[in-house]
Automatic annotation (TrEMBL):
One Pfam family hit: CRISPR_Cse1
Low complexity compositional bias, start-end: 547-568
Gene from which the chain derives: casA
Protein name: Type I-E CRISPR-associated protein Cse1/CasA
Region annotated Disordered, chain positions: 233-261, 544-601
Amino acid sequence: MTKTTEPSGADGTEGEALSFDLTSRPWIGVLRCDGAQNELSLRQVFAQADDLRCVVGELATQEFSLLRLLLAVAHDALDGPGDIEEWAELWEEPDCFAPVEAYLEEQRDRFDLLHPVTPFGQTAGLRTARDEVFSLNRIVADVPTGEPFFSARMPDVRRLTFAEAARWVVHVHAYDTSGIKSGMVGDDRVKGGKVYPLGTGWAGGLGGVLVEGATLRETLLLNLVAADTEQLDFSPDDRPSWRREPRGPGSDGRTATGPRDMYTWQSRRVRLHHDADGVHGVVLGYGDPLVSRNMHRGEPMTPWRRSPAQEKKLGQSPVYLPLEHDPARAAWRGIAALLADRSEDTGDADGPPRLRPLLLEWIARLVTERHLPRQFLVRTRTVGVRYGTQQSVVDEVVDDRLEMPVVLLHKQDPAYATQAIAAAEDADRAVRALGDLAADLARATGSEQEGPKATARAEGFDALDHPYREWLSGMATAPDPFEHRHTWQRHVRQTVGRSGDRLIAAAGDAAWEGRIHTDNKGGTHWLNAGLADVWFRGRLARALGNPDSPDAPRSSDTPDTPDTPGPDGQAITSADDGPHGPEPTGPPGTEQAATTPEAHV
């Protein structure tokens, strides 16, 4: 912490004030379609969007927050799209972002990072009672507190270029940690020089979801949700932060008015300290808190979950909260949260337990109304943060992509989505059986079970990760989603079966000799590797059924025929085609059935 004063001129002397105009100065990292990386200004990003692959940043969360800023600019500059027909015109018009140029010129003063009165994303004159200026570590999220050796900026950040500082200003509003922060002069929330925790930045509480196209132009348009989208509230007062009056310290307690407001929500009060060579310090305090409860009609870029605890506490139903990403689960394992249709009948009059992102509802509408072809592939990207220690530190950043055909979102033909979700459940049940095998083998030797079980499950999901993604992409050309799922079940049966073989082969003599085991119902067994193998094959058959049978079910249900008693005293089934079935002839989705059933679509 240091004290400093601002220079009055461009070189630290009296004279012309410093300026860094984000509309014309390069500051947003991009990847071009030819593989080159550059920094571009806001004007250049929109003018060259068709030649750019994506936005790139220091962290996935920075890329997500920058894309949301670009979406706010596009929504505001185009004042729309108002409806799906207007969106279709933008999709077909190569120069659809032409109005952005004049818009940015009109808003130019509000995009000056160093403006003396309205600096971008900041509060002019922000100060603590003791005029403290803090290290830039407070806004640079890739410097873990107490873990400097895991950062390229060891041990702290002493200086940033203006371009870097601008990116981190956008990021800090979206993802800053919670915890006790310094109190700002003029903030009525200050107690003893501090403001007590008010939560993370707005995006930090989301399970962020965006849809990526082949170019940045496609990505921006696909995420540009039309104002007439059902269940999405667009207020006439919805506008981004730079079209609102500059805010001083503290907050007036207002809530968000819609997506443009949420994409640029000012959750912090920031002031950069700089000289002619760059930024060397920062003042950071709390800005506008935003309660996430039941904001699902205004925030389209996250899934939502019912909260029984909040419903009980508030005496109202339903109450929806953002569904955050689990760093331990790949995106495909949580595909139900992305594909589950809001209109599905769950039997609960108050609403379904989960809502998929309104962004994906929008994509579903584009497919259903035939503005996108059924074979069109999009990459659904999931971005989020797992905070630790009362949300005061960042533990993990979640970043995953799942390429899938838009037919999975077709409202009038849900069979593809249903089978994609069921296939992920197939994998989950099969891997659970593999974990149980590892636990049984450990139990047969008298060893600790949870460690081997967790390791086996992790290896099982790793083995199925790439095949599931490839199988999911193959749905774009699959004539029958049910047979496509049976192809997946055969692959899972073979892959997990071989993993089980390796566990048994490595179990050792002690596991083959075994020991007495008492099940949950008081029965006793001489548990050894042989019996563990029988139980495993039965569980695998119960998890997957026999997809090669002509009577295989055309639903997510699997047969459960009692046969051999399992370790818990309940019956399990035996595999009808042996432990593995036939060797696969290629990756999942490439095998051909002997007879092709009538196409489902």
